[in-house]
Write a structure and sequence with these properties.
Layout: E1 2-9, E2 16-23, E3 34-40, E4 47-50, H1 52-60, E5 64-65, H2 67-75, H3 78-103
Parallel strand pairs: 1-5
Antiparallel strand pairs: 1-2, 2-3, 3-4
Helix pairs in contact: 1-3, 2-3
Length: about 110
Amino acid sequence: MLRMRLRRVGAKNQPSYRIVVADSRAARDGAFVDYLGHYNPRTEPPTVVIDEEKARKWLSVGAKPSDAVQRIIDKMGPPAVEAVTAEAVTESESEGDANSDEGSNGADDTETTS
């Protein structure tokens, strides 16, 4: 599965991060598929640059943002949030609908909760 996540760069005790699309099994600073932007938490306010077009493309093909990347996207503001997270919500809803249809055989539609 592909993940949008942070890749640490920078000197010791001076972190900055690249936002990349990578296989979820790859090492944090290992191989990646595409570079989306960068994040520098050491500036005031923190610097965030994301190529929104690339982010939308990767979300549309199934890449999921990590918790940290999702927080960064949420803090970017309404235009960026609407553009990037709307794609993620649409993708997760369509996957949820597809998965619920696969497991149902129509014989027993009741669910029990404990």
